[in-house]
Design brief:
Strand order of the largest sheet: 3-4-5-2-6-7-1-10-8-9
Oligomer: single chain
Shape: globular
CATH superfamily of the largest domain: P-loop containing nucleotide triphosphate hydrolases
Radius of gyration: 27 Å
Length: about 475
Amino acid sequence: MDIRPQKGPQEAFLQSSADIAIYGGAAGAGKTWAELLEPLRHVVNNPQFTAVFFRRTMVQIKNPGGLWDASTKLYPLTGANPTRHVSEWQWPHGGKVKMAHLEHDTTVYDWQGTEVPLILFDELTHFSQMQFFYMMSRNRSMCGVKPYIRATCNPDADSWVAQFISWWIDQETGYPIPERSGKLRYFIRINDVMLWGDSREELYEKYGDRNLSIDDPQQIRPKSVTFIPGKLTDNPSLMKADPGYLANLKAQNAVEQARLLGGNWKIRPTAGAYFKRSWITIVDVVPSNLQIVRYWDLASTEKNETNDPDWTVGVKLGRSDAGVYYVLDVQRERIGPLGVENLLLNIAGQDGANVTIGIPQDPGQAGKSQSSAFIRRLAGFNLRAFIEARKGDKLTRFGPFSAQCEGGNVRVLRALWNDAFFTTLEGFPQGSHDDDVDACSGAFRMLTEVNTGLLDYYKGLSETVKQEPARVNGNLSAFMTALN
């Protein structure tokens, strides 16, 4: 039987020599079938070869029409025998293919000590960056096949994958650059920082150990990466078998059409209504005499495949003597209640006692109890609780900080978190999460509230100027010093 990929992106994906090849873009491009075909080049006749497919949950693997169902239409044709309860295929004279989940970040540690020559991620954007790079450490081989990774995905502007493949994507339009499809690039990762080059030699030259040869096992080992976009029109088999699928995609709203039909990696419901990254100046150094606060927008639910919880976000904001605002750090986590407490304590220790900490307090006794617990836990630090306004006031609360951004009065310290921070703010108010927005609003409120309070305090002084001019003039002098 002749089993082969369709010409076009599917064939290019299977022919790629990259260490990491990602087949992504629009829905219906035949991505899952391309992945299922990949192990067949080795698994039929190599008894030492193993490939593992990962999805975020086992439910996704076993759902009707899911990865397991699709494999039952292909692998028996090549002589494979299934073991359904462990989601595994075995070939009579060859290796095996296993399907597994990585539901939580910690699930990766179940794979400690394993050796997987071929790792395949189905819907890569569903996995965290930590999961992907940890599993790279399991991608090794003693079976005669060079270890490699294959992945598929649909566009997700907020995923780490969008940044990982940004070279292949037009950053203005969000659509793939046709002439870069399938082209190789190379990277090394040092202290969580991605360093890219157009060749291995370029990276050896810039970052390698000049005392070692290129072949020395201790030398850096750049990985090659490619991205291959695909669309429904690249899958004539599906269009013939299900001619109504195109109509289904065209029935989506404009944003989903751009993503699922066009393969757009930058599209969001609306962006820039209250924030544009072009308003911001990114800096590498900040003044030393800043008044600094950190405000936390709190959440307490861990991320899993079936939910989309809010983030716990802590924005560290400074104000200079000249009245310029500096975003110094942003912490973002999806963790449970105990993890949130530990996070606040750890970051407070890093920030130091001179940084005032702010947290929201829900109205009512429960909110008071929670804020009191945080204050006790962070004894020794300057922590204040602020009564949280109604949810509908988010736009109003964000308005003052937004105005400072639009006016060019906000600087952001260059860091790895910049893009995720900008992306979330640009998506407001239509984005699914506004935790960074609320944290910015709270931090800005903390820095301006003192000055507002002083202004209110001195509003009545004009009535007593004639009676006590010396005291009033002294207070006005202190007032002006504080405002500046």
